[in-house]
Amino acid sequence: MNQYPNVFIFDHPLIKHKVSILRDKHTGMKEFRELIEEITTIMTYEAMRDVHLVPVEVETPLEKTLQFRLPEESVAIVPILRAGLGMVNGVHKVFPTARVGHIGMYRDENTLEPHEYYFKLPDGIEEKTVFVVDPMLATGGSAVDAVAALKKRGVRQIKMMSIIAAPEGLEAFTKAHPDVPVYVSTLDRCLNEHGYILPGLGDAGDRLFGTK
Ligand code: PRP
Ligand code: URA
């Protein structure tokens, strides 16, 4: 059951199927990367449900009709490095012209505190709907800080998208940013003593990029 306001947890058989393969320690890097991308694309459809459309007049072969389209260049993607990079193509499948900003964050292994090491955003991002993507919402520290940095820069429309979340991370994120909707494919049980999500999928960055 979802007790968090403003959190959308997917309950879709296709996502469940793909997440189960993602979790499997025998799933190799190529398949892992493809699955992250596919799951992200499915999630993006749902996350854009409330995106603002503009009216346009279209002439079919038979008559003129009033239709609705996404405004040009209305979306940007901001992956939290490194693992968020794996989700960028998944959003690009739906919004191919979306510009991409990058926020580099690493978690201190001992304190689990996030540290920012890179920050670069496209011009005009303040006017766009920004999808912040990171496959793992564990303590929530990285996502909380990344979204705070975007707000400080003037971004107002933010959607947080993660593949797997821990209850601790959702709690922290929704407390810090109650105005930001969060889309997660799966809510897991808890964190272990090293801040890893259980049952989780291990280290998303390492599995995506073949490190370790
Ligand atoms: C992972 C993950 C998130 C963060 C989640 O990144 O991709 O960014 O941990 O943990 P949190 O919710 O407790 O902040 P990591 O710091 O391992 O860096 P990496 O992506 O470069 O591997
Ligand atoms: N980061 C990961 O990659 N995996 C976890 O389980 C927690 C943080």
Blueprint of the fold:
Layout lengths: L6 E3 L3 H11 L5 H19 L6 E6 L4 E6 L5 E7 L3 H8 L6 E2 L1 E6 L6 E7 L8 E5 L2 E2 L3 H12 L4 E9 L1 H10 L5 E6 L2 E2 L5 E2 L5 H6 L3
Parallel strand pairs: 1-11, 4-5, 4-6, 4-8, 8-10, 9-10, 10-11
Antiparallel strand pairs: 2-3, 6-7, 12-13
Helix pairs in contact: 1-2, 2-3
Bound molecules: 1-O-pyrophosphono-5-O-phosphono-alpha-D-ribofuranose and uracil (URA).
Q: Which key features would you list for this structure?
A:
single chain; 212 residues; alpha/beta; Rossmann fold; two-stranded antiparallel sheet; binds uracil
Characterization of this structure:
Helix 1 packs antiparallel against helix 2 and helix 2 (29-47) packs across helix 3 (85-92). Helices cover 31% and strands 30% of the residues. The chain has a single domain (7-209), classed as 3-Layer(aba) Sandwich (Rossmann fold), CATH 3.40.50.2020. It is α/β, with parallel strands linked by helices. The chain has helices at 13-23, 29-47, 85-92, 141-152, 167-176, 204-209, and strands spanning 7-9, 54-59, 64-69, 75-81, 99-100, 102-107, 114-120, 129-133, 136-137, 157-165, 182-187, 190-191, 197-198. The strands form 3 sheets. Strands 1, 4, 5, 6, 7, 8, 9, 10 and 11 form a 9-stranded mixed β-sheet that branches. It binds 1-O-pyrophosphono-5-O-phosphono-alpha-D-ribofuranose and uracil. 1-O-pyrophosphono-5-O-phosphono-alpha-D-ribofuranose binds at residues 80-83, 105-107, 112, 114, 134, 136-143, 169, 195, 204-205. Uracil binds next to helix 6.
